[in-house]
């Protein structure tokens, strides 16, 4: 595609019509958004028919779009045409009902509307005074979601029974990585304070713990928080505990560290690990941590959404004894990226570590102590109005519809699991939790099982009719089938299973 500036004079008339540069001209806003909404409508109507994985090569986009920024203005329709012609063909369509890889990135009409309105307002709510509504909406949305999850009131800013402001609190961050990082920093500083350490002199004695199934971002966050890599404990799991953290083994490792003069500081328990959806026993982990005063964080990024349903809430039993918990509604609760909710039992421990108080942000409301400025519960200072889309989702759909959404996905995953178990060429590698099925082709007639399963995944993904990802569990190469894309219906799951069976038959018969 040639440069849009190859004939700048062609846009002279367009530029001449403008009475100076007006980037927020109300008529333009209306026109551009109407066209964008039409594009989104067409996209959702057609995404099912698009290849889930694009057939493009690295660097494709730079060959389709001009390499230098344009100097002259262009009609909005030009940009929209380039999106259709160049961007869409290079997209991996997470919105596709044929997307079964990783965990879903759910969305909804209410979330999109909330994101649009928040983006249009474009507020930077670092303090309460900078935008009272944004701060209070975030607190309200977090307290609502905490109630849906039946979290103890100690995690809420506004206690529901007494009506008073509690010591706990929450904040909406971008990712689980951020939630881990800020709580690691708070736990680090609290441990150093208990030790009477001068500054960070004692940091080399601090130890942190997680199961080997914990997301890799945890170990990255530990390094960012300054923990010595030699003091980061990855505790092996096994099929005996369905790859969940063994609290007895955890206790043994922590005691050995204490005997060596180290200080157990932080434990990450996961509800719904990425590889297999394993669940660490929250209550037992909290009990193991208690004698050492170690901070316990619960990462429920994906599976936490399911805990709004009473039948799944038991996975959070014992949460009243942990220090923090995070979950990401952008994974399974119909709220578009990015939206990770973090609750802490003592917000002061977080703000003591993360507070900034420059002169230009000082104000009477903050000084009064009547509010918590959310900038002091995150790494940065600036922040988006994320609370609006989360509130819009809960306000529009209510608990009943959100529970229906979770249960529908779980039912489809159960159906897929039953199909796998009924075909003796396959095995379910770990018991299904929530809406993820981990399966593989069983060893057959001297077949190299990893090669066969890798070939199956590649053949499936090449068709563009389904997209699956893999993991390794207990040394086995395993396919992950994650149900939950917002547009998925039972027919999409059945169609994917038919395709899996067909490609498996081709592999076993030696067909290429």
Strand content: 5-15%
* Mean pLDDT over the residues: 92
Give me the number of helical elements.
Answer: 16
Count all strands and give the number.
11
Look at the helices and sheets and give the structural class.
Answer: alpha/beta
Widest beta sheet: strand line-up: 1-7-6-5-4-2-3
Instruction: Report the sheet with the most strands, covering strand number, pairing sense and barrel closure.
Output: 7 strands, mixed
Distance from N terminus to C terminus (CA atoms, Å) equals: 36 Å
> What is the helix content?
40-55%
**H/E topology pattern:** HHHHHHEHEHEHEHEEHEHHHEEHEEH
Task: Give the secondary structure arrangement, pairings included.
Elements (H helix, E strand, L loop, with lengths): L11 H5 L9 H21 L13 H5 L11 H12 L21 H13 L10 H17 L20 E5 L2 H20 L10 E6 L4 H9 L7 E4 L11 H13 L3 E8 L11 H8 L5 E5 L24 E4 L1 H4 L7 E5 L2 H8 L9 H5 L18 H36 L3 E3 L7 E6 L7 H15 L5 E5 L2 E7 L7 H19 L4
Parallel strand pairs: 2-3, 2-4, 4-5, 5-6
Antiparallel strand pairs: 1-7, 6-7, 8-9, 9-11, 10-11
Helix pairs in contact: 5-14, 6-14, 7-8, 7-12, 9-10, 14-16, 15-16
Cofactor: pyridoxal 5'-phosphate
Protein name: Aromatic-L-amino-acid decarboxylase
GO biological process, one term: phenol-containing compound biosynthetic process
């Amino acid at each position: 595609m040639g440069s849009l500036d190859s004939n700048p004079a062609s846009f002279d008339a367009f530029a001449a019509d403008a009475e100076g540069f007006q980037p927020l001209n109300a008529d333009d806003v209306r026109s551009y958004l109407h066209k964008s909404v039409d594009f989104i409508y067409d996209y959702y109507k057609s995404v099912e028919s698009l290849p889930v994985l694009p057939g493009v090569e690295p660097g494709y986009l730079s060959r389709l779009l001009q390499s230098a920024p344009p100097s002259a203005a262009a009609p909005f329709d030009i940009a929209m045409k380039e999106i259709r012609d160049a961007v869409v063909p290079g997209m991996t369509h997470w919105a596709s009902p044929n997307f079964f890889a990783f965990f879903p990135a759910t969305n909804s009409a209410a979330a999109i509307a909330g994101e649009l309105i928040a983006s249009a307002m474009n507020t930077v709510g670092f303090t309460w005074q900078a935008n009272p509504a944004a701060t209070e909406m975030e607190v309200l949305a977090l307290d609502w979601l905490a109630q849906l999850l039946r979290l103890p009131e100690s995690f809420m800013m506004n206690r529901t029974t007494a009506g008073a402001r509690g010591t706990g609190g929450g904040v909406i961050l971008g990712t689980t990585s951020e939630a881990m990082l800020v709580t690691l920093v708070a736990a680090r500083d609290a441990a150093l304070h208990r030790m009477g350490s001068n500054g960070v002199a004692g940091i080399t004695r601090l130890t942190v713990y997680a199961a080997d199934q914990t997301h890799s971002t945890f170990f990255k966050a530990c390094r960012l928080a300054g923990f010595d890599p030699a003091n980061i404990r990855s505790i092996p799991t096994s099929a005996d505990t369905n790859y969940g953290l063994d609290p007895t083994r955890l206790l043994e490792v922590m005691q050995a560290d204490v005997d060596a003069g180290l200080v157990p500081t932080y434990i990450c328990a996961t509800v719904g690990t990425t590889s297999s959806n394993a669940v660490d026993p929250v209550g037992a982990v909290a009990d193991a941590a208690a004698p050492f005063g170690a901070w316990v964080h619960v990462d429920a990024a994906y599976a936490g959404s399911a805990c709004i349903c009473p039948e799944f809430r038991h996975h959070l039993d014992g949460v009243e004894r942990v220090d923090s918990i995070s979950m990401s509604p952008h994974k399974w609760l119909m709220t578009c990226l990015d939206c990770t909710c973090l609750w802490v039992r003592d917000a002061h421990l977080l703000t003591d570590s993360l507070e900034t108080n420059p002169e230009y942000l000082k104000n009477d409301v903050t000084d009064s102590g009547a509010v918590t400025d959310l900038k002091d519960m995150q790494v940065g200072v600036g922040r988006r109005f994320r609370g609006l889309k989360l509130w819009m989702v809960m306000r529009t759909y209510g608990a009943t519809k959100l529970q229906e959404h979770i249960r529908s996905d779980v039912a489809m995953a159960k159906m897929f699991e039953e199909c796998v178990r009924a075909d003796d060429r396959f095995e379910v590698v770990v018991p299904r939790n929530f809406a993820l099925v981990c399966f593989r082709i069983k060893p057959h007639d001297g077949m190299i099982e990893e090669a066969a399963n890798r070939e199956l995944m590649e053949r499936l993904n090449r068709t563009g009719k389904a997209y699956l990802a893999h993991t390794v569990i207990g040394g086995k190469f395993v396919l992950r089938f994650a149900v939950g894309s917002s547009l998925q219906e039972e027919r999409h799951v059945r169609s994917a299973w038919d395709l899996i069976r067909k490609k498996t038959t081709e592999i076993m018969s030696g067909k290429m």
